[in-house]
Design brief:
The structure is a single chain. With 226 residues, this protein is α+β, with helices and mostly antiparallel strands. The protein folds into two domains: 2-38 and 192-225; 62-184, OB fold (Dihydrolipoamide Acetyltransferase, E2P), CATH 2.40.50. It is 38% helix and 25% strand. The chain is built from four helices and five strands. A hairpin with a 3-residue loop joins strand 1 and strand 2 (85-96). Helix 1 (2-43) packs antiparallel against helix 4. It is elongated, with a radius of gyration of 26 Å. It is found in: Cell membrane; Membrane. InterPro entries: Surf1/Shy1, Surf1/Surf4.
Length: 226
């Protein structure tokens, strides 16, 4: 019987650790769902004027409304959508009525329209401030000569367009026949894998219990035979 104490203790401790990890992921799931609900609410709020000094922490996803000119200066970010397949996001310089120069994510165009002329246009637009986190160590470098980017990197794009590091993702525009299809910001692209992680940890806990029971029975059987 003493031979069973160590594997039994090992099984109990391992199961407890795996269950605690699963419970922690359930807590993280509740937290993440609350955060996403808050973001969804902020996205759908009534728009306000563009803040004087927007910042990611204070103004992320803030609904804003402004008027000005979409210039002919634009960058193209290679992307894809479920309905259209491969597309380019059009990130354009935008000059507000009060003289500021920021960026707007106008939306998407088919790849074959990449080099089609898009003249400057005066518009009133509604959208959301956004600082996407799309770059990592695997993101290819932009190709300035071909004007192809592979992620929305707000600081880098602002330097290229000589604007403030501020991006409005367009939701609606007063342009009657926009040359670009808006692709509004949403919380759908924000990862929320905590449920899958919780199921994984609880599943591992169940496997751990089964393996512990099997091993204890095997040892007990060998002890009786001996």
């Amino acid at each position: 019987m003493p031979r069973l104490v160590l594997p039994l203790a090992f099984g109990i401790v391992g199961t407890a650790i795996l269950l605690s990890l699963g419970a922690w992921q359930v807590q993280r799931l509740a937290w993440k769902e609350a955060v996403l609900a808050q973001i969804d609410s902020r996205i759908a709020d009534d728009p306000v004027p563009l803040p004087a000094d927007p910042a990611p922490d204070a103004h992320g996803f803030l609904a804003v409304k402004t008027r000005g000119t979409i210039t002919g200066d634009e960058l193209h970010v290679l992307a894809s959508t479920r309905d259209l397949g491969a597309v380019y996001r059009v990130i354009a310089a935008f000059e507000t009525e009060d003289g500021r120069r920021i960026m707007v994510d106008r939306g998407v165009i088919p790849t074959e329209e990449k080099n089609a002329p898009r003249a400057p246009v005066d518009v009133t637009l509604t959208g959301n401030l956004h600082w996407p986190e799309e770059t990592d160590s695997f993101t290819p470098e932009a190709d300035p000569e071909a004007n192809i980017w592979f992620a929305r990197d707000v600081p880098a794009m602002a330097r290229a367009l000589e604007t403030e590091p501020v991006l409005i993702v367009v939701r609606e525009t007063s342009q009657s026949d926009p040359a670009v299809t808006p692709l509004p910001v949403s919380s759908a692209g924000i990862p929320n894998d905590h449920l899958e992680y919780a199921v994984t940890w609880f599943g591992l806990a169940a496997v751990w219990v089964l393996m512990t029971v099997f091993y204890l029975r095997l040892m007990r059987s060998q002890t009786r035979k001996g």
